[in-house]
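User: I'm designing a mutation panel for HTH-type transcriptional regulator YodB and want to avoid disrupting the core. Could you give me a predicted structure to guide residue selection? Please restate the sequence first so the numbering is unambiguous.

Assistant: Good idea. Sequence first, for numbering, then the predicted structure tokens:
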Amino acid sequence: MAKRKPLVDNDDNDHEPLQRLMSIVASPWTLLLLHRLHMEGPKRFGELKRRLGKISTKTLTERLRRLEAEGWLLRHYEPTVPPQVTYSITEKVLELDGVMVELDRIAERWYGKSKKK
């Protein structure tokens, strides 16, 4: 039986930057998390969890850690009792402003509260 040629040529790195960006943005909850921080400003962990709804603590923690490691979020730690940690977006994420605003408009048009299912 003949081997099938892969859909993506692994030797071709032309799409590597886009693949990296999409692997981050397309992971569940990430875009909504970034949107909340972009539109509403810095938030503490508990606030983010409440604003995102059904996200698990584990998933939120993973997303925050990855976005911080990628330089998309800033984590501000206050050594109080109990400690206060606030998350905010970086300048890098502000480059996604047009994308987020347009996705918000499309979502309202397609799935807004006045639309029937």
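For picking mutation sites, this is relevant: The chain has one domain: 28-111. Residues 97-111 form the longest helix (15 residues).
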